[in-house]
Amino acid sequence: MRQAYLHNIKHGIANGYHIAIQCAEEGDILQKATTSYNLAKEGVESTGLVNIIWCKRNDEDKWKIEANFLAILGEAPEETIADYSCNEIAEEWASAYDRAIYSNHYEQ
């Protein structure tokens, strides 16, 4: 089964976002905004509870958070995104993830 946090990182980068990783417990930035899948993946996997932050630079060359996803790594790998922003960007990812899960389920 496809892991939600990996799909989330790939989908964010593919749609033009930089990915930053923040420890959800301590608030420390584990990975600065990047378009590197591997760096974002390592940031998420460095601890069990993180915020995956999709961001873009604004007109003033400052980072603007577009969506935020709470990732929990644990027993059920497909259920790693526990919560996310209530906005069109995050909802689009959730729909894309559902489509990917259900299409893979029926292909097997």
Features:
108 residues, alpha+beta, five-stranded antiparallel sheet, 3 helices
Give a written overview of the molecule.
The structure is a single chain. The chain has a 5-stranded antiparallel beta sheet. α1 (4-14) packs antiparallel against α2 (37-45). It is 37% helix and 32% strand. The protein is an alpha+beta fold. The protein has one domain (4-107).
Average per-residue pLDDT, rounded, comes to 90
Q: What would you call the shape?
A: globular
* Low-confidence sequence ranges: none
SSE order, one letter for each helix or strand? HEEHEEEH
Report Rg.
Answer: 13 Å
- Can you list the strand order of the major beta sheet? 2-1-3-4-5
- Tally of helical segments: 3
Strand content: 25-35%
Q: Which sheet architecture does the biggest sheet show? A: 5 strands, antiparallel
Total beta strand runs: 5
**Helix and strand composition category:** alpha+beta
Helix content: 25-40%
Distance between the termini: 11 Å
Number of domains: 1
Summarize the structure.
The chain is an alpha+beta fold and 108 residues long. It has helices at residues 4-14, 37-45, 88-107; strands at 18-23, 29-34, 49-57, 63-72, 81-84.
Give the arrangement of secondary structure elements.
Blueprint: H1 4-14, E1 18-23, E2 29-34, H2 37-45, E3 49-57, E4 63-72, E5 81-84, H3 88-107
Antiparallel strand pairs: 1-2, 1-3, 3-4, 4-5
Helix pairs in contact: 1-2
